Amino acid sequence: MAVSFFTSERVVKTSHAGLSVIKKWEGFRSKPYLCPAGVATIGYGSTVYPDGRAVSLRDPSITEAQAVEILAATLVKYEDAVRRYTANAKKPISQNQFDALVSFAYNVGIGNLQKSSLLRLVNAGNFAGAGREFGKWVFAKGKKLQGLVDRRADESYLFAS
Fold first, then answer.
1. 68-103 burial, b for 16+ CB within 10 Å, e for fewer?
2. DSSP code of 134?
3. Which residues contact residue 76 at a Cβ distance below 8 angstroms, ignoring those fewer than 6 apart?
4. For 135, what's the count of Cα atoms within 13 Å in the CB-facing half-sphere?
5. Strand 139-140 vs strand 40-43: parallel, antiparallel, or unpaired?
6. Catalytic residue among 26, 79, 133, 155, which?
7. Phi/psi class of residue 150: alpha, beta or left (left: φ > 0; alpha: ψ in -120 to 50)?
8. How far, in Å, are 5, 55, 60, 84, 102 from residue 11 at the CA level?
């Protein structure tokens, strides 16, 4: 069933299913660390705080509750990007497709989503083809990572369900 992203009362947000995928694959870390791409990260894969400051390896630890707050604040820009980039799609996307695209963008970046064949196929209404595109995004610094293979499989499954 297709979901309208704009109603008189609210804009669709990432659902519990989408948040579960993101949290599962990002994992929670209370202390700052370098992600496989070499970027300082904290909480559930956050690279910036809600106030826009970049995460630094010198930052203090955070609680899981703080990580959830940071994630919620951070997801807004990814949700906005997915809505904006799919606004003129030939077919409306479902909640699960929205969630999968938000998870994907959160991991690879908005710019990569914007220039991807995945987005082009979504906007053309070729959802089967778009679902196959997730599996192409499994490299970090030129190395294929099993964690990304598994994450993309989960995102593709969510997208297709």
1. bbbbeebbeebbebbbebbeebeeebbbbbbbbbbb
2. G
3. none
4. 6
5. unpaired
6. 26
7. alpha
8. 6, 28, 34, 12, 14
pLDDT tens-digit profile, the chain (161 residues):
344 444 434 578 999 999 999 999 999 999 999 987 789 999 999 999 999 999 999 999 999 999 999 999 999 999 999 999 999 899 999 999 999 999 999 999 999 999 999 999 999 999 999 999 999 999 988 889 999 999 999 999 999 99
CA 49 to chain centre: 16
Clarify whether 64 is annotated catalytic: no
Quickly tell me which residue has 């990260």 as its tokens.
Answer: 41
Q: Give dist(CA 6, CA 116) in Å, integer.
A: 24
Two structure tokens written together for 152:
């993309």
Q: Tell me the pTM.
A: 0.88
CA distances from 122 to 54, 95, 99, 138, 144 (A): 31, 13, 13, 19, 25
Residues 6 or more apart whose Cβ sits within 8 Å of residue 146: none
